[in-house]
Automatic annotation (TrEMBL):
Family: Belongs to the shikimate kinase family.
One family name in Pfam for this protein: SKI
Originating organism: Streptomyces adustus
Protein name: Shikimate kinase
Locations listed in the record: Cytoplasm
Gene: aroK
High-level lineage: Bacteria, Bacillati, Actinomycetota, Actinomycetes, Kitasatosporales
Length: 166
């Protein structure tokens, strides 16, 4: 196994799972999502892991999960929105085809609203989105081999743009 065909990164709510599944269908390969792997392995939700153990512990779990998925999957792989925060995790992506699905802050607020299932957005979503994007944008750009803007586009249009960018 030579690693995933495509890795999708980008902020939560940008559509990594929807686009990832469409992309996998179009490419005739399997789809995998490290958030799902973590929930299955841990037997609890991501929100519960954040509450029980905090973000740092979650990032350590996530790093292991990304490493396993990269070694064991050759289709489309979507990473959690914050996976890029960890330098080791970013290092694991070197040499892979990494598509960054981007969106602007207003689009993010509109799409995710007050989604309390996402612990990082529980209060004041606009301010938190701004801070989150400011902290992460350059990390996504650093590892991406292609950037696909999703603002105002349907999942099908984003999928086509991602295919065109491969
Ligand atoms: C996170 C994004 C989430 C999930 C966790 C933390 C983040 O993944 O890993 O809630 O830090 O941006 P999605 O991007 O799949 O929602």
């Amino acid at each position: 196994m030579s690693g995933p065909l495509v890795v999708l990164v980008g902020p939560m709510g940008v559509g990594k799972s929807t686009v990832g599944q469409l992309l996998a269908e179009r490419l005739g390969v399997a789809y995998r999502d490290t958030d799902d792997d973590i929930v299955a392995e841990q037997g609890r939700s991501i929100a519960e892991i954040f509450v029980d153990e905090g973000e740092n512990a979650f990032r350590a779990i996530e790093k292991t999960s990304v490493r396993h998925a990269l070694a064991g999957h050759d289709g489309v792989l979507a990473l959690g929105g914050g996976a890029v925060l960890d330098a080791d995790t970013r290092g694991l992506l070197a040499g892979l085809r990494v598509v960054y699905l981007s969106m602007d802050v207003e689009e993010a607020v509109k799409r995710t609203g007050l989604n309390t299932a996402r612990p990082l957005l529980a209060v004041n979503p606009r301010k938190q989105w701004r801070e989150l994007m400011d902290a992460r944008r350059h990390l996504y750009e650093e590892i991406a081999t292609a950037v696909v803007a999703t603002d105002g586009r349907t999942p099908e249009e984003v999928t086509q743009a991602a295919l065109d960018a491969l």
